[in-house]
Amino acid sequence: MGKTKLYTYYMIVPGLILYLLFYMFPTISGIYFSFTDWRPENEIIKFTGIENLRYIFTDSLLVSALKNTFIFAVITILGKNILGLLLATGLNVKIKSRNILRTIYYIPAVLSTVVIGVLFSAILTPEGVFNTFLNSIGMGFAALDWLADLDLVIYTVSFVAVWQMVGYHMTIFLSGYQSIPTELYEAATIDGAGSISKFINISLPMLVPAINVSLLMSMISGLNAFSNVYTLTGGGPADASQVIGTVVFKKFGEGSWGLGTALNFLQCFLVALICIPLLFYLRKKEVDV
Asked: What pTM value is reported for the model?
């Protein structure tokens, strides 16, 4: 092999070294430490096998965190994609204010999650803006303690996450709309098709690539929930809104590094177990379309 051909391999060596050093080595080390009793006070780290995993599936807090993670993921996946698609469909028509409206809906996606957490912490208090508004329109019966109700808080956090990112997913669907030839709609109009018929028979099939991207991104972010929950409730009240990400943070803060690592890898495994088969399925559907 000549020097010219070897040149391309020389170029990837620095990136490969960084990848091995800062990704593969920590990953492999983390897999090992997830099967140990790794704590700062332990002078000798002992291999404990599946003891950490057994603890995860028997501890009430961790089981509740797993449940909350799936609740958060389902709500955010449905909310971001359904509302994002509806917004994109409504703002794909030629109206004078569509660019302004697109910007307004997209702005929350570029705001810091910390800012949103502080903002909604004030809005959703019992005496906050939202409950005040409900009382002013005669819906005081719906004014709840959104962030303190143990049964309600995880749903509240989920809807705030949807509010923040729905504009981002709207842009994904809008980009998909731009790739649809206008001739298809014009031909459908000549054939007498209505708006609903055009949406079902033209828009949805042609939006499959955009739907696939949006669905996968929302699923990965939903299963990796952390920032929205941590900034809004910190996992409270009484651990009612804890998700896997916040429990991992809590366990590392307590010094349970082995357990925290095991829980983190369980989260990665769940994401891979759900998203990889879904990716292949969606790609197949995309080709079929």
From this structure: 0.89
